Amino acid sequence: MDRASHVRVGAGTVTVTGTGWAEAPPDAMVVAMGVECRAGSVEEAYSAAGTSLQALASALRSRGVGGADIRTAGLTVRADLAWRDGEGQQVVWYVAASSLSVRLRNVAMAPGVISEAVSSAGDAVRLNSLQLVVSDDSPVRARARESAWQDALRTAKQFAALASATLGRVLSVSEQQPAQGPVPLGGMQRAAAVEALPVEPGENRVDAAVTVVWELQY
C-alpha cells in the first residue's frame, strides 16, 4: 500500500518522495519479564531475587527456550523508604529486581510458555511487556520499498505531464528509514494468573520511503 508523496519540480528535474508499506504476520514474540523480591536486608532480597530468577529461567528452558534466547536485561537493588513521625525517613524494605528479555520463536505456543514461567516464581514474577516481531523482515521490507517506488513513479509521471514533459533518466535515488519497532501488546507490572492468556498475532507493518530525482524531457 502507499500514501502521500512529496514533490519538488526544479530546472529540468522533478524530485518525488514516495512512501509505502507492507504487512506480514509476526513469527516470534519478545517478552520482557523478571522478578521483584522484598526483604529486611539487602542480602536477603538479593538472594530471594536470584532464586526466583533461576526458577523462572529453568521454567523457560524446560519448555524448549534456548539459552541464546534468554538474556539478562536488568538488575537493581533499592531501599523502599517511608516517612515516620519523629523518626524521619526510614527503610521499610530492601527491594531486589532482575529482568529477562526472552525470545519465543513459536507464537502459537507462547501463551503456554509464559503461563508456566509466571507460575514458576509465584508472586515475585513481573511481566512487563510482550512484543510481536518478524524475525526476518527482508521480504516484507522489499515489498514496502516497491510500494514506495511505485508511489513516487505515479506522482512523478503526473507532474511531468502537467509540465508538458515526460520522465527521463533517474538521476538519483535515496531511501529514508522510518522508525520501526515491534508491535507491543499491553504491558503488565504484576503477573499473578497462571492460566494461559490468548495472543492474537495480527500483522506487523513495515514502512518505507524513497526519494527519486528524474530528468524531465520536453
Please describe what this structure looks like.
The chain is of the alpha+beta class. The protein folds into two domains: 6-24 and 137-180 and 206-217, Translation Initiation Factor IF3; 28-133, Protein of unknown function (DUF541), domain 2 (Alpha-Beta Plaits, 2-Layer Sandwich). Helix content is 26%, strand content 45%. The protein contains three helices and nine strands; from the N terminus they run E-E-E-H-E-E-H-E-H-E-E-E. It has helices at residues 42-62, 110-120, 138-162; strands at 6-10, 13-24, 28-39, 70-84, 88-104, 125-133, 166-176, 183-185, 204-217. The strands form two sheets. It has a five-stranded antiparallel sheet with strand order 4-5-3-6-8. Helix 1 runs antiparallel to helix 2. It is elongated, with a radius of gyration of 26 Å. The chain starts with 5 loop residues before the first strand and ends with a strand. The model is unreliable at 181-195 (pLDDT under 50).
